[in-house]
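call fold(seq) -> tokens
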Amino acid sequence: MATKIFVNLPVKDLNKSVTFFTKLGFSFNAQFTDENATCMVISEDIFVMLLVEPFFKNFTKKEIADARKTTESIICLSAENRAEVDEMVSRALAAGGTAPNEKQDQGYMYGHGFEDIDGHLWEVMWMDPAAVQG
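ret:
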């Protein structure tokens, strides 16, 4: 059985976050969705739990980082090609996100990123399969 990963992110407004990520093409598992949280499906084995801040606080004794001021993590997603990288970032910007950095192009690897409406950093990258094998 493959290991699954569940990334948990605090959000200020669950409905706005769902709207934002829906515009990027993500779907949600209704079985794990209520007024406190939703399960965003990235792939068969990768999920992002978006939890409203008061509910998120139940899982930690630490303060919740304000992702608009502090970098807690950078979530990186792979893309099939360069165009998919650009398309995802374009959709994020159109949905209200920002692009905190310029595109990175090393020839064999290409990436760009966005900041979502809660300030979480997302990178989208493509790597030439030949470079990975070699």
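The longest strand covers residues 5-11.
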